[in-house]
Amino acid sequence: MSLTFKLASRNLFQDRLRFVATIVGIVFSIVLVTIQLGLFLSFERMVTAMIDHTSADLWIVTLGTKCFEDPSLLDARDQAQILSIRGVIESVPVVIGFTQWAVPSGGVTPVFAIGSDAGQRGLHPWNVVQGSLAALSAQGAVAIDKTYSNRLGVSKIGDSAEIREQAVRVAAVTDGIRSFTTTPYIFTSLANARSYVATPPNKVSYFLLHVSPGTDIGAVREQLLTKLAKIEVLTPDEFRSRSRAFWLFGTGAGAALFAGALLGAIVGTVIVAQTLYSSTKDHLSEFATLRAIGSSSGYIHKVIIYQALLSAVIGFGLAACIGLVVVRSTAETSLPIVMTPGLTLGLFLLTVLMCILSATAAIVKVLRIDPAVAFRQ
Amino acid sequence: MNEPLLEAVDVVQRLGKGAGEVRALNGVSLALGGGQLTLLMGPSGSGKTTLLSVLGCILTPTEGTVRVRGHSTVGARPGELAKLRRDHIGFIFQSYRLFPMLTAVDNVRLALDIRGEDPDRATARAKEVLLTVGLAHKENAFPGELSGGEQQRVAIARAIVGNPSAILADEPTGALDSENGLAIMKILAKIAKDPSRGVMVVTHDPRILPLADRVIYIEDGRISREA
Predict the structure, then answer these.
(1) Fewest Cβ atoms closer than 10 Å to its Cβ: which of A155, A247, B16, B200?
(2) pTM of this structure
(3) ipTM
């Protein structure tokens, strides 16, 4: 074992209470950052879940649409003009909107209805665990997610409830289609959706366009913008970016999550800096001796940096274990905390960076030591 | 005498600033040659430790020149002075200055580790030197488990393990009883027999005068006499 590492580890472990305080500081800080960034990732994925689960090449939306849930309406009669554009092979109308679900046992709860017809490449539920997509074509047929069974008062195929005084029957059950707004999604046919969200027959929320292979998407977009008024034509990536920008930053939710993460990182850095500094102060006479006998500044910095890195590795190890427990315990909730390999690596690097930054104060202190101190009693 | 290992020429050292400024050394010139045990004696506050710090390249003189094996330290940067110290000078301090969390052998090895020497070779060399100071059986003991005399012997081993040209000791027997103090001085006298190495010891202890090859008396920052 190198002497610098030995000195660092013994300096670190010598005062057990201070060591525990350092580790607790790092763990709390990293767990907080993990939760904040995990929620951010989860939120980021959930706000684009509907866009991610369509195969459309282009979305036609009303001018100024901010996100998928923005309930603006297009003229359904534009369908013919859309299909007349060279390269467009399918245009699927989709209707969305908030409505009220009457729970069988009494009371109402808001739901978000999404309607598009089976047989077309529209917006259909995924992860279907009971029933089938085809069954949604029937009048009053809906798909619910089992996450919201309790809230909706239905749990299996055949269970019934009401939307706007119209009878609805569960025809499919999905698993894991959760809403970041906490308002459950229900999927149904286009006609049912129109009826549930009170959209007139001549209106739709979106057109999902599919173009033939090799078609110039830019050219199709240009033609659509020329032919249709008050619309925007977005690629899925553009619509995703717009939705994320709105929900994460337009609403302040993302900024709040980032602020929490930043706060966690700052608190962790300060705690580690404080403990490293006080540990360095306790060993000033030893560092002075090192300087007196001719040690380079780099050698002494190495001791302090090793202390910081050891704290980082131990702290991160414990924080990662706690983070895993948190991730598992929220996996089935409506807003699960997401942990990806990239986030794990990023958090490790953040911990290391945080601890190295923390060492700065201690290093500055050591740089100022007068080696002549070694001659004093 | 061959080329001095350490040399001070007209060294003036002012300490403090403004009204609190003190002229700790006032035109000191001396040379430390090989194969000699030199004692530096004088009353408290006479400038002994300051002179040792200047000769050891820990303090940069306000005026005058210090040479280490003929190389002037004038204008040297802190990093260069540190290199001179680790390559050419061994230090022994009154309060030992051992690392309490390192074993005796690791404390000795430290002087080689800061030079970037191979850990295995450094450990073997540290054990060898501990043997010469009579502490081979305590190589794995921590300073807290050693007597004062044993700790000072570890400190001597640390000072000599890198084969420095000069060894500067600041009252190495100051914290020891007379028996242990004499034992330590005998080790230093033995080390000073090596013609390639010079040993300078700051001391108040007249009982060790018979071991010295040369005694320099310093008073009010000046060399008052030499014997």
Answers:
(1) B16
(2) 0.76
(3) 0.91
